[in-house]
Write a structure and sequence with these properties.
two-stranded antiparallel ribbon; globular; 267 residues; alpha/beta; single chain
Amino acid sequence: MKSLSSVNLADVQAVYSGPEGRLWELIMGQQVHIGGMQSSHDLADKAGIQPGTSGIDLCCCSGAGMRFLVRLRGVKRMQGVDATPAVIQLGQQRCKEEGLDDKIELLLADATATGLPAGAVDFVWGEDAWCYVADKPKLISEAARLVAKGGTIAFTDWIEGEGLTEAEARRYLGFMKFPSVLSRGDYCDLLRKNGCEVVIAQDTGRFAPCLDLYANMLTMQLGGDALRIIGYDMAMMAALAGEMAFMGQLAQAGKIAQGLFVARKRD
């Protein structure tokens, strides 16, 4: 595990309440995670998410993952939890506009202590967002509390690969506003400690190609749109491009990755 104590929840809230969050959505779409809908289908397939089931999305952002699950995978009901008021409000608006507000509820709450009933849903879901949570042991404990016995915890996340140095981690975590990043082994240990059997824990292989795609989108197609979002600040644009290139180098070297995890809560 690598961590950066100077990053806190207020930093994350600032990102997703301002231009940086809009910039990520510009290049990644509403499904602000590596691989977009392809990644979501892959996770749902591997987790065996069935029509008619119910779930909770921890760190749901504006709820795009839940809308995917309800609309394209036949999930009956979803509750989403996020700690940023701006994205909760945006998600509620989008769900209403798409006619899905009767099946999706977005809650402003701490993902490590949601206050939701224990063991009441078939699965807990997350997509590339748990990296923003400082207390990951408490997050995994809450996920295990929320899901029914025999139920599923399914998530992707940005994880530490092999050979990430402390200096590289400080730069990477500082840019992304991650308080910490875990390895595959770290997440597996936490899941097992919370009464879960780890079924899948793998590197998706999508990280480096997607970062290349995002960098190309900014330089070849969306540069003007990105500049408008950040107030035509050319220095900031250059800095963002530099950090994206740096992350691309880390990904190519296998030092950072997207991990996919499926675990079952023991009966």
